[in-house]
Amino acid sequence: MTPNTILKKIKLGETVTQEFKRCGNGIHSDVYETVCSFLNRFGGDIFLGVDDDGNIEGVPENAVRDLTRNFINCLNNPSLFNPVCTATIEPISVEEKIVLWIYVPNASQVYSFKGKVYDRQGDSDIVVTSTDKIAEMYIRKQNIFTERRVFPYLKLENLREDVFQKARQLAYNRNSNHSWMKMDNMQLLKSTGLYTHDYATNEDGLTLAAALLFGQDEVIQDICPTYWTDALCRKIDTDRYDDREIIQTNLIDSVDLLMQFAKKHTSDKFYLDENMQSISLRSNICREMIVNCLIHREFTSGRISKFVIEKDRMYVENPNKAQNKGKLTPENIEPFPKNPCISKVFREITYSEELGSGFIKLNKFVPLYSGKNARPEFIDGDMFRIVVPLGEMGENADVQNFDKNMNDGKQINCGENCGENCGENCGENCGENISAEEKILDAIKENPKITQRRLAAVTGLTLRGVEWNMAKLKNEGKIRRLGSDKKGTWEIVE
What we know:
Elements: H1 3-12, E1 18-21, H2 29-40, E2 44-48, H3 64-75, E3 81-82, E4 88-94, E5 97-104, E6 112-113, E7 117-121, E8 124-128, H4 131-142, E9 150-151, H5 161-174, H6 185-191, E10 195-198, E11 203-207, H7 208-214, H8 217-223, E12 229-234, E13 243-247, H9 251-265, E14 270-272, E15 278-280, H10 281-295, E16 305-310, E17 313-319, E18 326-327, H11 340-348, H12 357-370, E19 377-380, E20 383-389, E21 401-404, E22 411-414, H13 424-430, H14 436-446, H15 452-459, H16 463-475, E23 479-482, E24 489-492
Helix pairs in contact: 9-10, 10-12, 13-16, 15-16
């Protein structure tokens, strides 16, 4: 860990996976209590030489060697820790002071220190005395990463070749030199941890995550019979539903199917990003919600994941192994990978980004979509829930989309097909209805050097829609290109 990284982490304060401790010439007992609680929860970082407020006091440089040696000896002393454990300790110079960074890994066993079992709740170390709670800790440890459960009799022929090809294409779209292009299916599975060794049974095999990502539908249902996502629209019939789809297929295709459901029942709004590119707010918001619901689900739970669209809000919920209970905020959120292998595949195919990025993106986009005072809610518990208010965007969702031009405030009414994935037909079917040609011509008059990407931003059309309309205008002799593609200009033919 670099000094800059440590400074950034210190600014976050103490959390369920992070603790600060003063340290002089000796390590106090409460440090080992925290080590024990981290081992029993999610692992974490301890910074010796930092006070509770995040001020760096440092540890005596001449004591570093003895502190390190004594720390390791204590962890390996069976009279102190049962069972004996491992953690790393490393001195790092931060602001010209020595900070001892202790990294405690997530462990597969339940540990005690001096005969007491500690657990981590929030930023505190709690002594666990209840036999029921201790039993729950053992169960939690056994099931912590259930996506890695090996099924030795699950074979390649039980997986879908078309989904492998879809994943490769998505990865290729991100990076034409992506390593998956040179791998066969088994190599791809091994590289992503979807084919591994089970040290409990001493068997090799495909994992639960492999089945969920690439498996045939009937295979997934045999392995995970309660796995599906219930998509509901409740705008008129609030007691039952106006529309319902049960999504019961692999995780990769599930994203697309749930996105289609979202586009069917919600309106869209476009936004110019920092590069002056037009992006779909609906697509960005719904994708973050849907992906989070799918990849962070606890698949061993019998409870069902849901995507619900109501008149004034939409929400997703999924079974969860909670770190905390209650609402998450920038101050208390501590991203934790529930299914790291599934998350890795989703990052490779650009369905998700880095852990915790969804929280940031939703807080950015929801006020732009639903009104400046609108905020998403993140509620951690046995069911993890993300709630997004719809506000004015939900009122006309069944009638039309609303596309705000962020430059002049003009509102453009467009048909349902003007979503994220509209292609050639969008320009053909929607362009004339919203006078796309006139908008393109007006933009060219103002700026003959305007690019097609810029045209997409100022008209609200997709890039494919702009391309279609531009080709149509050229074929009709209404515009022509003067000069090269890069440095030329557009001319309107009168």
